[in-house]
């Protein structure tokens, strides 16, 4: 009796774990966004303090933000998720800007008295840089939302290729490795989330394809390895 109840408990725990993971996913993504904004702002502030950038003050952050918005305007004119991705992205960024900086009075105070001397001018410079970096990170977040079908496609291709490789191994008397399966399975989510975190936190402008395409390829490869190394018989 106990032996028959054990598989039922394991199946129930797996279902509960899957439901819990789906429930926590939006909060995980929101946490990644918040951490990315904090890391980006801190990196920008450290760069301003130590003079890493050739542009004075908050100009580096402003130019980086404009470059990211330029990628969005020129490269994401069509999307599977929304009919007009540029208008959608502009609405999101403008809404966040209004609620975070305009209605709070931060934008008006930072823009007033440009060129102020002393510590007030320094605070305003750092505050403007933080605003630009936040908007840049939000723009990259919208780009990630629009490129979500790329990761879905890479996952489906990797899953299909892995199933084919698994069937070949089954009918060809191939050996299976639980070590490879478990480690590849553990790497799928960290690759997905870490890639997004790094992309959102980069302190310089980068074309989305230069970063997202390798991440999607690696994501699909891990799914292929995990699926192909899954045990032969259920």
Automatic annotation (TrEMBL):
Matches recorded under InterPro entries: DtrJ-like
Transmembrane segments: 21-43, 142-164, 184-204, 210-230
Short name of one Pfam family: DtrJ-like
Keyword Transcription regulation: no
Superkingdom of the organism of origin: Bacteria
This protein's name: Integrating conjugative element membrane protein
Organism this protein belongs to: Halomonas huangheensis
UniProt keyword list: Membrane, Transmembrane, Transmembrane helix
């Amino acid at each position: 009796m106990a032996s028959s109840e054990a598989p039922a408990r394991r199946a129930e725990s797996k279902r509960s774990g899957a439901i819990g993971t789906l429930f926590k996913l939006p909060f995980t993504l929101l946490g990644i966004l918040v951490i990315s904004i904090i890391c980006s702002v801190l990196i920008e502030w450290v760069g301003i303090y130590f003079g890493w950038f050739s542009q004075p003050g908050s100009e580096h952050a402003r130019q980086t933000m404009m470059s990211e918005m330029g990628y969005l305007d020129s490269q994401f004119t069509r999307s599977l998720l929304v009919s007009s991705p540029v208008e959608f992205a502009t609405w999101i960024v403008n809404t966040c800007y209004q609620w975070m900086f305009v209605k709070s009075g931060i934008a008006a105070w930072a823009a007033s008295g440009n060129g102020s001397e002393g510590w007030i001018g320094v605070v305003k410079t750092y505050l403007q840089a933080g605003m630009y970096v936040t908007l840049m990170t939000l723009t990259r977040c919208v780009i990630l939302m629009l490129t979500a079908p790329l990761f879905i496609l890479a996952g489906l291709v990797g899953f299909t290729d892995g199933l084919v490789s698994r069937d070949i191994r089954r009918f060809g008397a191939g050996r299976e490795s639980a070590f490879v399966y478990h480690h590849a399975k553990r790497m799928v989510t960290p690759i997905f989330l870490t890639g997004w975190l790094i992309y959102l936190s980069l302190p310089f402008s980068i074309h989305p394809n230069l970063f997202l395409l390798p991440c999607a390829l690696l994501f699909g490869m891990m799914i292929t390895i995990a699926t192909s190394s899954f045990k032969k018989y259920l």
